[in-house]
Amino acid sequence: MKRNALKTAFPYTLPVLMGYLFLGIAFGVLLNSKGFNAAWAFMMSLLIYAGSMQFVAINLLVSPFQLAAAFFITLMVNARHLFYGLSMLDRFKSLGKLKPYMMFSLTDETFSLLSSVKAPDHVNPRWFMFFIALLNQGYWIAGSLIGNIAGSLISFNSTGIDFAMTALFIVIFVEQWEQAKNHVPAMLGIVITALCLILFGSDHFILFAMAGILVSLSLLRGKLHAKESE
């Protein structure tokens, strides 16, 4: 039963495999360039497993420790996962002992797959979903280790490699812009972020921008939902 679910789930994860390997390699190389070895890459990808936050965490590790700033940055960067979890409550209800891991492993790509695919009739849906999540994390861990080990063996200039995650989010933004009927949320994000950058500077704008976006979207939620339903 489990083997059948694994074989069925694997083809669905191939696009994630390609993306996670390259992004994981970028993360591993950058982490190594800051003086952290493969053990750090493995443990961060195993226990944190949040692509964008892991890139941010590198800067937190090499900067003076500020608990409040680290807490709020982590909360804001990963706030979208709150909504992922809420939307999966019904699907995860019957997962039993698999539920804690499924909640932990709900990355952007895993959420997208679980939301769009359904287990074939001959496959146990519980294990099908589990192996999609497990395979995806395995790809990320593998990429992180490959990048970190390669960075320790091969000497090259890693300047700009941390832009990989920024590039990924630009691609995601463009795709969502093209698919969305309502561009108001995206415009709010751009305008509020630009204003916070001007007002608070590049070192402090992220928290204020994320808070402003969260508040504005919460206040306009009814109107935005009504416009989407038109």
From TrEMBL:
InterPro entries: Brnchd-chn_aa_trnsp_permease. It is found in: Cell membrane. The keyword Glycosyltransferase does not apply. It is a multi-pass membrane protein. The chain crosses the membrane at residues 12-31, 38-62, 68-89, 127-147, 153-174, 183-200, 206-224. The keyword DNA repair does not apply. It holds the Pfam family AzlC. It comes from the Bacteria. Belongs to the AzlC family. PANTHER family: INNER MEMBRANE PROTEIN YGAZ. This is AzlC family ABC transporter permease. It comes from Paenibacillus chibensis.
